[in-house]
Every structure is written in C-alpha cells, then in structure tokens.
C-alpha cells in the first residue's frame, strides 16, 4: 500500500568549529554561572573566611605577609622546575588543570615518598593503577639545599597562624614534621578549581590519625 505521507526527513545537528580550549572555557563559564545562580537564589551560601557564622570548624583564610608569600612562591617554582612538566591532571588524568607534589626533607612526606599510593577515590582496578603511576611520576623529593631562603620562617608562620584557627584536637598536627607535600596547582588558563573535598586516605595528604579519633 503506498504511503500517504512523505518519509520524515533525517534530523541533522548543527556542527560548530570550536577549539578544545574554547570548549573548556565555555564549560567553565557555564559552571561558574550555575554556582552564582545557586548563591543568588540562597540554595547555597558562599563562605569566605573562618569567622563566617556558617563556616565549619577549621575553615580559614589567611592574608600572607610579603616575605611568607615570596618564600612559598619560590618553593612553587622550585617544585615545578624539578617536575620538568611531569605533572598530572588535577581532577584525573584528563583534566587540563595540572598538579604535582614536592615532598620536603625532615617531614612525614620524606618517610612516605615512594611508598604512598595516591589515587582518586572513584578509581578502581587498572584505572586506579594508572592514576597512582601518574601521581608517582608527578612527585619529587627535595633536599634541604633546594628549599628557598626564608622557607623555614614562612612555614613556621603558616603553621602557627593556622594552628590558632583549627579545633584543638588538630593543632598538634600543624607542624613541619607532619607535612606530607607541597602541591603546585597549574590552572592552565582556568580561573577556578571546582568545588571539592580532599580525602586523606586517597589524595595522599590530610590528617589521618585525627580522623580516626
């Protein structure tokens, strides 16, 4: 029996030439706009510093003095130079934002360097193995001669100021000996890191002993 209607036309999709960089920029802009809308609608609250009424215990934001900032910035550059581009994705191996780890002498990190398995919590099996290998390649152990001038004083300043802001049960962990690693974050042109929580048993840093008490 002949058809009474013409065959439907195949749907076509509009294809646009967009570079990977532009696509990433558009995605980030959409994410930022979404968060701003959620804040404006009071669905979520933006917290800036430790003395906000809604801030959880231990959240803090510090204004660094120029000398402390200069020492930490120098450490950042030293670690990046040692890594020689062997960084890994901040949110997984495919993330254009990059990070690396600089383990420091006379710290917990020095004892753990080379034996600490750092993976994303959601990674399993072969993917977890590949993630751990990428993080290991993005890790270096510094010696004392590589630490920048003023670093010890800068670290003492940071630990002292943060120690005064966290709950008392965590204060004893805010010292050089308990430091695991300094982590340079390379944003690769992106303005923000997405909202996240660091997990001590997976991300390789954080207070582990206190989390069990």
Descriptive notes:
With 213 residues, this protein is mainly alpha-helical. It has a domain at 66-205. 38% of the residues lie in helices and 6% in strands. The protein contains eight helices and five strands, in the order ααβββααβααβαα. The chain has helices spanning 20-40, 66-83, 108-112, 125-137, 151-163, 168-171, 200-203, 208-211; strands at 88-89, 98-99, 101-103, 139-141, 185-186. It has a three-stranded antiparallel sheet. A two-stranded parallel ribbon has the order 3-4. α2 (66-83) packs across α5. The chain is globular, with a radius of gyration of 23 Å. The protein starts with 19 loop residues before the first helix and ends with a helix. The relative contact order is 0.15. Residues 209-213 have low confidence and may be disordered.
Q: Name the beta content range.
A: 5-15%
Span between termini: 78 Å
Count all strands and give the number: 5
* Global Rg: 23 Å
Task: Indicate the overall shape.
Answer: globular
Helical content, roughly? 25-40%
The DSSP helix count reads 8
> Main sheet?
3 strands, antiparallel
As residue ranges, the low-confidence spans are 209-213
Alpha-beta content class: mainly alpha
Compute the average pLDDT: 79
Strand/helix succession: HHEEEHHEHHEHH
Task: Going across the biggest sheet, name each strand in turn.
Answer: 1-2-5
